[in-house]
Design goal:
The complex is a heterotrimer of chains A (about 110), B (about 625) and C (about 180). Chain A has a single domain, classed as Helix Hairpins, CATH 1.10.287. In chain A, about 75% of the residues lie in helices and about 0% in strands. Chain A has 3 helices and no strands. In chain A, helix 1 packs antiparallel against helix 2 and helix 2 runs antiparallel to helix 3. Chain A is elongated, with a radius of gyration of 18 Å. By secondary structure, chain B is mainly alpha-helical. Chain B has a domain of about 55 residues. In chain B, strands 1-2 form a two-stranded antiparallel ribbon. In chain B, helix 3 runs antiparallel to helix 10 and helix 14 crosses helix 17. Chain C has a domain of about 120 residues: Up-down Bundle (Four Helix Bundle (Hemerythrin (Met), subunit A)). Helices cover about 75% and strands about 0% of the residues of chain C. Chain C contains 7 helices and no strands. In chain C, helix 1 packs antiparallel against helix 2. Chain C is globular. The chains are: A mainly alpha (about 110), B mainly alpha (about 625), C mainly alpha (about 180). Chains in contact: A-B, A-C, B-C.
């Protein structure tokens, strides 16, 4: 499969995620959109990994393997991020009884 | 001894420093001793130096102390010049200065301690500056002294600074002097440009090598400086106002010494003036006009010090007339005699004011002869001297100038001799109103009338003797040939023909008779007119015009001060509304802009993200459309 | 068009549609479910690309653990109803337009790039196998691997600190603290 199909797919998913972040006010939905964007990037990384393997695999057997390892690390970071992020959201809900990000406008002051 | 000449100015400087720095702790008696003592020692040193100078074969000496300014080829050193002219001025300044210091110890005795010390420190600083002025061996040192005396004059006129009018008078004197100083400074700059030096010897040596136009410009600019300092038309109006200062100050600064600085300076640079006939005419015309104008104004003044002030302006006019017609030694002679009799007049007036408890209006005096015999006699001598009655000193010096003026142009003589007549008249109007007739003050004042103490009368007597006999230093050739001691003494400095144009003996004698007769008429007329029935009412008609000083102050106000004031107001408006408007406008614009920009800082996370994405978009677009 | 291509197109369309549904669902629980669908589709892509290990991890960690965590939070807060208030329409439109513009720009940029010759290998190769990944991970990437464990630890501590409620905080100082009073 030519690489641009994967690129277009990943970009499309990423942009849907961006549009979601921009339009929704529910903090958890925004969070989910961020996960969506991360996954789009993951998909792209795997596709590039296979592309490199296709190009260089004959001479270097492990070519492209680090792309897949980066995906692994991204998942690690995403897991940590989700745990902290959800804790923050729970905390916020406890204080404001809402998870609307527009309640969090104290950055102004 | 000549090498130690720097001690002469340094001693009053030391007095100034001691009195000025410790004015709060020194007792008044010590302040007086320090103030007068330093000047007395300077006087003694001056006498010794004068003795050296009079020796046969004395050569003018320049005492070079140190390099003052050294820039490229221009070297100006702090140097003092000792010659016949500066030695004579040293004597006058320190001598008269000491007498006035002595007088002040009594006159100013009612002042509080610190102010008393302040007065003496200013006086000492003045003496120091004046000595620097006459001793300087180049125009720059002269100028330093010139500025110093201007400053002291300002400080002393405004001595009673709590009175606003006195403060204004001080300011007026300072500004008027400053106008003249600008001319002086430009003249110095021109000398540096043309001669590459400001040393007297070098400048005078090279004077012949430059064009007459340059010399005329330099001399005219120097003369502008002299009109400011020596109160000539058009810058004379500060001197009458300067009478706001204490009377000893008026005597020392505004009569005897400082105001003669202009005459000294021109006599010193006579080499330049001889080369500029145009300037000489200007000096003569201005001098004659000032003498006449001031004399007419003095006719109608009622403040005893104002009369004397205008008479000073008038006498200074005489001196400039003398300079203008080439009679340098006549002018210097008149400086000397004038220093004696005018200091005496002012000190006598001070004695009267002292006795009257601060009253200066002559209309409230009268008959003081009875209470103040010493003051009366000395004052009468001074009046006779200034009126030109022989054998008092004023007769000799004034007639020398008048004779030279006749030689140059009879019109000068006519103006001069008429002014002499006016002088005799107003001086005896002053004398008669003050000392003759009956007392017109309050009963309380009459009760307090008394002769002044010895510290006041001793200087009066000394000055009276000097005013009476100083004229014999310059006996005209009419009476005895080669008896003009002063002319012979000054000839090494002022040149052999410093007399101006010599007249035939017959002519000179006739002129003398004319002026003496006119002076006597003036004296008699004034005596007859004012002894019994002084004029007490408000002047009318032409008299009012004179009493208001020809409305010169009003004219200056309308022509110079008002327009400048309006300009300043306009500039203030411009500054407040246009300049500040621009500055504040920029500030307000930034404030407005930031208030609008602040709306972007909504605190809403969504908005921030949106802007961030738009920013990324823009970056992408830029990348896309600029790379290829 | 072989089975691989068919599967590619099918999974791609499924991923994009599900993603759009994530964004536009009113009910947050539906969003979570649609997101799981997206992850499943992406895992399918991984299998097509012979990244079997990542496909399984993606399913277990993302679609399983993380999304369950999301659901759990929704349930906990009782937010499964449509609680989101009506938002500024213009801001919504602006968000969509901006996202679309970003897509356009990226596509336009990629159109210019000459990538036709590059092929992403499918149904072939063994770099995605757990054995090969493990060898590389514990040889070349052992330090980042260990550091990530520290990251987890700190995340855990952070969550505990943030999530503790204030009543408990007071109980930590039973005798009261000197700062508040």
């Amino acid at each position: 499969m030519p690489i641009n199909y994967y690129i277009f797919l990943a970009v499309a998913l990423f942009c849907v995620g961006v549009a979601g972040v921009l339009t929704r006010r529910n903090a958890i939905i925004i969070f989910m959109c961020i996960e969506l964007m991360l996954n789009a990037v993951n998909l792209l990384l795997v596709a590039f990994s296979k592309m490199h393997h296709h190009a260089l695999g004959a001479s270097v057997p492990t070519a492209g393997i680090d792309g897949q390892l980066f995906v692994f690390f991204i998942m690690v970071v995403a897991a940590a991020e989700v745990s902290v992020g959800l804790a923050v959201i729970v905390m916020m809900y406890r204080n404001t009884h809402s998870i609307d990000v527009n309640f969090l406008n104290r950055l102004k002051h | 001894m000549t090498q130690l000449v720097w001690l002469v100015p340094v001693l009053p400087l030391v007095g100034f420093l001691i009195n000025g720095l410790f004015r709060k702790s020194l007792p008044k008696s010590l302040v007086g001793i320090i103030g007068s003592g330093t000047v007395l020692i300077s006087f003694i040193l001056s006498v010794v130096i004068f003795g050296d100078v009079r020796h046969e074969g004395f050569q003018p000496t320049v005492v070079d102390l140190w390099d003052f300014i050294s820039v490229d080829k221009l070297h100006i050193s702090l140097a003092f010049q000792v010659d016949q002219l500066s030695a004579l001025f040293l004597l006058i300044i320190t001598g008269v200065g000491f007498l006035i210091h002595l007088y002040s110890t009594s006159y100013m005795h009612e002042e509080e301690g610190p102010h008393y010390a302040r007065f003496f420190s200013y006086l000492n600083l003045f003496v120091f500056s004046m000595l620097v002025l006459v001793l300087g061996a180049n125009f720059l040192i002269l100028f330093i002294g010139w500025e110093g005396v201007g400053l002291c004059s300002y400080l002393l006129i405004g001595y009673w600074f709590k009175n606003l009018d006195y403060g204004y008078a001080a300011r007026k004197a300072f500004i008027m002097n400053r106008i003249g100083d600008v001319g002086f400074l430009i003249a110095i700059f021109m000398m540096i440009a043309k001669f590459g030096s400001v040393d007297f010897a070098e400048v005078f040596g090279k004077a012949g090598s430059v064009s007459t136009g340059v010399i005329t410009a330099i001399t005219l600019l120097l003369f502008v400086g002299a009109t400011g300092k020596s109160a000539q038309i058009p810058l004379y109006t500060w001197l009458p106002d300067a009478m706001a200062g204490p009377t000893p100050v008026s005597a020392l600064i505004h009569a005897a010494t400082m105001v003669t600085a202009g005459i000294y300076m021109i006599a010193r640079s006579h080499v330049l003036y001889d080369l500029a006939p145009v300037t000489m005419n200007v000096v003569a015309v201005i001098g004659a006009a000032t003498a006449f104008l001031a004399a007419t104004i003095a006719l109608k003044q009622n403040d005893i010090k104002k009369v004397l002030a205008y008479s000073t302006v008038s006498q200074l006019g005489y001196m400039f007339l003398g300079l203008g017609v080439g009679a340098y030694d006549g002018a210097v002679f008149h400086v000397m005699t004038h220093a004696f009799f005018k200091a005496l007049l002012f000190l006598g007036a001070g004695s009267v004011i002292h006795a009257m408890g601060g009253e200066q209006d002559m209309r409230k005096m009268g008959g003081l002869k009875k209470w103040m015999p010493a003051t009366h006699i000395t004052f009468l001598i001074a009046c006779l001297a200034i009126s030109g009655i022989p054998p008092f000193s004023g007769f000799f010096s004034k007639d020398e100038i008048l004779a030279a003026a006749y030689g140059k142009n009879p019109i000068y003589y006519v103006v001069g001799v008429f002014t002499a007549f006016l002088t005799a008249f107003y001086m005896f109007r002053l004398y008669a109103t003050t000392f003759l007739g009956g007392f017109r003050g309050t009963h309380e004042q009459e009760h307090h009338l008394h002769e002044s103490p010895a510290a006041i009368t001793i200087p009066l007597w000394v000055l009276a003797i000097l005013a009476a006999v100083a004229g014999f230093l310059g006996i005209p050739a009419v009476f005895a040939p080669n008896a003009h001691w002063l002319g012979a003494y000054l000839s090494p400095v002022l040149g052999e023909n410093a007399h101006g144009i010599e007249l035939e003996k017959g002519t000179e004698g006739m002129l003398m008779v004319v002026s003496v007769v006119l002076a006597v008429i003036g004296v008699v007329a004034a005596w007859a007119r004012f002894a019994k029935k002084p004029e007490l009412g408000e002047p009318t008609g032409f008299g009012k015009f004179l009493a208001n000083k020809w409305y010169v102050d009003e004219l200056y106000n309308a022509v110079v001060v008002r327009p400048l004031d309006l300009l300043a107001q306009f500039l203030t408006f411009f500054d407040k509304h246009i300049i500040d408007g621009i500055v504040n406008g920029v500030g307000r614009l930034v404030q407005y802009g930031s208030r609008q920009l602040r709306l972007l800082q909504s605190g809403l996370v969504g908005g921030y993200v949106l802007l961030m994405v738009i920013g990324i978009l823009v970056l992408f677009l830029v990348e896309l459309f600029t790379k290829h | 068009m072989g089975i691989t291509q068919v599967l590619f197109w099918f999974l791609s369309i499924m991923a994009i549609l599900a993603a759009i549904l994530v964004v536009i669902s009113k009910n947050p629980v539906h969003s979570v479910l649609w997101l799981i669908v997206v992850f499943v589709a992406i895992s399918g892509h991984y299998i097509l690309l012979d990244a079997q290990f990542l496909a399984i991890v993606n399913l277990i960690v993302y679609a399983g653990a993380i999304m369950v965590l999301f659901l759990f939070v929704f349930m906990l807060m009782n937010l499964n109803a449509e609680t989101e208030p009506q938002k500024n329409r213009w801001l919504k439109i602006a968000g969509v337009v901006t996202g679309g513009a970003l897509l356009l720009v990226l596509v336009a940029a990629l159109k210019k790039a000459d990538l036709k010759a590059q092929i992403a290998e499918m149904n072939k190769g063994d770099i995605g196998l757990i054995h090969n990944l493990g060898v590389t991970l514990f040889h070349d990437y052992v330090v980042p691997f260990e550091i990530s464990s520290v990251l987890f630890l700190s995340a855990m501590v952070g969550v505990v600190v943030i999530g503790r409620n204030e009543r408990e905080q007071k109980d930590m100082w039973p005798h009261g603290n000197n700062y508040g009073a």
